[in-house]
Amino acid sequence: MDWVKIGSAVLLAAMLIYLFPRAKQAVQNSPKGSASDWMGFVIPIVAVVLFVILLISLV
Amino acid sequence: MQMNTAVTRSQEAILATNKVIKNTYILLSMALIFSGFTAFLGVASGIGHGAALVADIVAIAILWFVLPRTANTAAGIPVLFAFTGLLGFGLGPVLNYYLSVNPSIVMTALGGTGVIFLGLSGYALTTRKDFSFLGGFVMIGMLVVLAAAILNIFLGVPALFLALNAAIILIMSAFILWETSSLIHGGETNYIMAAAGLFLSILNLFQALLHLLGAFNNE
Fold this sequence. Notes:
The complex is a heterodimer. By secondary structure, chain A is mostly helical. Helices cover 86% and strands 0% of the residues of chain A. Chain A is built from two helices and no strands. Chain A is flat and about 45 Å long. By secondary structure, chain B is mostly helical. Chain B is 87% helix and 0% strand. Chain B has helices spanning 2-45, 49-70, 76-90, 92-101, 103-127, 135-155, 158-184, 191-216. In chain B, α6 (135-155) runs antiparallel to α7 (158-184) and α7 runs antiparallel to α8. Chain B is globular, with a radius of gyration of 19 Å. Chain B starts with a helix and ends with a helix. At the A-B interface, α1 and α2 of A face α2, α5, α6, α7 and α8 of B.
């Protein structure tokens, strides 16, 4: 196992530890979205997915 | 009289929000140009994965420990450029690899990232929808992706690598909507922190798209 892999894993683990309390706070404090809110999110995300599929088919 | 004061305050708040949005996009554009230059330096100097990892570690340390302390001062701008420049420089080995096997992948990923970012930002800015409910989703998504990425460093499963990059594209797209909405609705009032968040999401989006296009191009 080379040191770059170990270093990358340590960096990602540090990010995980750093983000964990912020994620907990975000989950507790974020308002709940209604069905129409989620629909307003799903539409652009579906567009992104279709666009990425288009890019994959182009290269 | 009270009504006039309320209207004036509301107008002031709108003007302040528009100023934050304008400053964020100006700073983000400059940071992207600068990181493009440092990425070129990373490619031209042929740095290895070790040097790229060191650049990334220093950049993350700046993001966590220096930027939050300087974001409300003039020093925040050079600190942001140091952060974005180091991350751009750290792209050197990945870009070198894809440029050597198929340069069109890099160009397609670059153009694709631009279209996705502008499309999502434009959607959030024109509809003015409040995406603050995405906060928990984005954070939990990031934690899951990080945990799976650590696992895959040791397992090296190609299917998990593809799934991770697809997930990163979705989470970063959600992050762009969330951050842009936060700028519009006054949740984020510091344009330096907003530019740093959006820069990170664009960089992750670009890298994930690059890996996906490379994988489907059998590279």
